[in-house]
Amino acid sequence: MSGLPGDGAGRQRSRFTRVMLYNDPSGLLSFWYSAEWQLQVESEPLPRVRLTPDVRDPDTHMAIAVSDLGAPLAPGEQPAVLEGVREGLAQLDRCEVHSLGEIAVGSLWGVEWRCSFDVADRRCWRRGRLFFSDRYQYAVVFQGSTEERFGYWRGMFEWTMLTVGTGSFDAQRWLADHRLGLESSTGERK
Length: 190
Fold this sequence. Notes:
There is one protein chain. By secondary structure, the chain is of the alpha+beta class. Helices cover 21% and strands 37% of the residues.
């Protein structure tokens, strides 16, 4: 036993104690993440972020990257994207694809998958998502260095994945907009 969270036989789950908002300076990417995680950012030419919840286990991480396709994805190109993901997964050592399909991220089209594969002497587990907005591709991938580590961090990784947005997030404006819904027509809070 390595002493890392999620390595035991118990059904432990990771928990948020505090979250932070990341807004990329370019205005292309935003997401919420655990304040305890290590955040590494490359902003040139486009945002690339790596989140590591436990620096003792760098193979358990989340990666988020934005790519400029030069033009919006055409509807006829969707099958090619799905096939490209399939081909990419096939290049992983002894990859077993647990799920792969099309998704909608709000009004945006995307592809999502879950798989496991070998790295050195262990089996890693991964979940990934690609989605497209305007001329940009957003790739969000999280993985655990083992099935146990994947299971332990999965809830927090999935929540963070669901908060990935295609622009800056204005928390003050969001709060103001949602406060309005809490007041009745007489000005009293509900």
